[in-house]
Every structure is written in structure tokens, then in C-alpha cells.
């Protein structure tokens, strides 16, 4: 018959003022012997148990101890992975919400100049970065609207230089800028995300640059939301540049 744990504890008749009796090793051992499935029903306790090492002196390894240690390690790894997934999911939800807010702000622009102001003034706050800029390379038919103090004037080939010819987005853990990309905010930027703004008939190739003084961007990081953001911006720019000056 299984022994109830309460059977070896002092009963209520001892009174609330009675001193609490500590169980000795023999009583705990007797209880466990009478309840062999205790750890089966309370498996979580095993990760906190210090099991004895057995060494017979004949070179035989205690496989039971080895398997228990490995199981404990696996449980800890799973717990850490679960926590990382939760934190990543929260971060992704926050980033997605911020991206949507930036897009909604951009689509309210009443013209190209207004769009540029939203990018320079509102997007850093909405996207939780320090600096946001756009820049364009020279075009065969220059448009005066691109001669804006908030639009970076790039040299031919700069977009491919900063992003790479075979890709549309490049993430930098450390980005060194002389002011060509981030202008007066270059000194603040440590990490950066640079995305290609593809050209149309009346708009040259350009880039969108997000800069942060922290370690926000790094290679290998997911860039889907940045890609979505720059594609929306690209469409808005093309729409505005198709309009007469």
C-alpha cells in the first residue's frame, strides 16, 4: 500500500504554535520506497536532483547517471529554445506593427515633397531607428523634385556598391558612412539596413537607408518586412514622379 506523504507530517492536532518537525533522511527514504512511482508523477523534480555517481573501480561508466545528465541538459536546452521563440515572436509582432504604421503614414502623403518629409521626420520614430534617408543616382532626365535637401545625392554605381549587384537588401552590423548615405546623421549610425529602390522611366535607381546607433541590424537577419516597406515606398515614388512637376 502506498504511503501518503501527509502520514509522516505532524497532524493538525499538534496546534499552530507547535514547532515544525524536519523529516530525517530515513523517513524520506521510507516514503520513496513505499511510493516507487513518485518521480514518475513528478518528473520535473528530476532536473533538480543530484544523483549519486557510481564507480565500481573496474572502468565501468554509470550509464544511468550519464543518461540522466543528458536528459536534464536536453530539458534545459528546450526551455531556452522555447524562451527564444517567445521573445522572437514578440519582437516580430512589434516590428510588423511598426512597419504597417510607417506604410500608413507614407500613403497619406499629398505629394513627393510631403513623402520625403514623412520618411525623414516620421519614419525614424515609427520604425524605432535613429535615421531614415532616401537617395538617388543621377538620371538622364533630371527632375527638380529630387534636388531636395532631404534626398541624398548619390554617384552612379553607389546603389550597387552599398547593396550589391545581385541583391536588393543588405544588412550591416557595422556601417561606416562619410555622410553620403545618412547625411548629418552619419555619426549616429552603427548598424544599418540598405534597400534598393528600383527605377522607372522618370525615376532613377535609388536606395532606402535605415540606421540605428544600436546593434539592430545584422547579416542573416530576416528582411521580409524591410522588403515590403521599400516596395511600397518604391510604388509611391513612381506614382509621384509620373505626375508633372
Can you summarize this structure?
With 245 residues, this protein is an alpha+beta fold. The chain has 6 helices and 5 strands; from the N terminus they run ααααββαβββα.
The whole-number mean of residue pLDDT values reads 82
Overall CATH architecture of the largest domain: 2-Layer Sandwich
Counted beta strands: 5
Largest sheet: 5 strands, mixed
CATH topology of the largest domain: Beta-Lactamase
The 3D shape can be described as: elongated
Specify the CATH class of the largest domain: Alpha Beta
Biggest sheet, spatial arrangement of strands: 2-1-5-4-3
Word description of this protein:
By secondary structure, the chain is an alpha+beta fold. It has two domains: 28-93, no CATH class; 108-242, GAF domain (Beta-Lactamase), CATH 3.30.450. It has six helices and five strands, in the order ααααββαβββα. Strands 2-1-5-4-3 form a five-stranded mixed beta sheet. The longest helix is centred in the middle third of the chain and has 45 residues, at 63-107. The protein is elongated.
Amino acid at each position: 500500500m502506498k504511503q501518503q506523504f501527509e502520514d509522516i507530517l505532524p497532524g493538525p492536532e499538534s496546534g499552530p504554535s507547535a514547532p515544525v518537525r524536519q523529516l530525517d533522511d530515513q523517513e524520506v527514504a521510507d516514503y520513496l520506497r513505499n511510493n516507487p512511482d513518485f518521480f514518475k508523477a513528478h518528473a520535473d523534480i528530476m532536473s533538480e536532483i543530484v544523483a549519486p555517481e557510481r564507480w565500481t573501480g573496474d572502468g565501468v561508466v554509470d550509464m544511468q547517471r550519464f543518461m540522466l545528465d543528458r536528459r536534464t541538459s536536453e530539458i534545459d536546452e528546450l526551455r531556452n529554445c522555447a524562451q527564444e521563440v517567445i521573445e522572437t515572436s514578440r519582437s516580430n509582432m512589434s516590428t510588423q506593427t511598426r512597419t504597417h504604421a510607417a506604410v500608413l503614414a507614407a500613403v497619406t502623403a499629398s505629394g513627393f515633397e510631403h513623402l520625403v518629409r514623412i520618411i525623414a521626420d516620421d519614419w525614424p520614430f515609427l520604425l524605432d531607428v535613429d535615421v531614415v534617408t532616401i537617395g538617388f543616382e543621377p538620371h538622364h532626365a533630371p527632375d527638380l523634385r529630387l534636388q531636395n535637401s532631404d534626398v541624398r545625392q548619390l554617384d552612379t554605381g553607389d546603389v550597387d556598391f552599398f547593396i550589391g549587384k545581385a541583391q536588393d537588401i543588405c544588412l550591416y552590423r557595422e556601417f561606416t558612412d562619410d555622410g553620403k548615405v545618412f547625411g548629418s546623421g552619419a555619426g549616429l549610425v552603427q548598424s544599418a539596413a540598405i534597400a534598393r529602390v528600383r527605377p522607372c522611366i522618370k525615376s532613377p535607381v535609388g536606395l532606402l537607408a535605415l540606421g540605428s546607433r544600436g546593434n539592430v541590424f545584422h547579416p542573416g537577419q530576416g528582411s521580409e518586412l524591410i522588403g515590403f516597406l521599400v516596395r511600397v515606398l518604391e510604388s509611391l515614388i513612381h506614382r509621384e514622379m509620373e505626375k508633372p512637376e
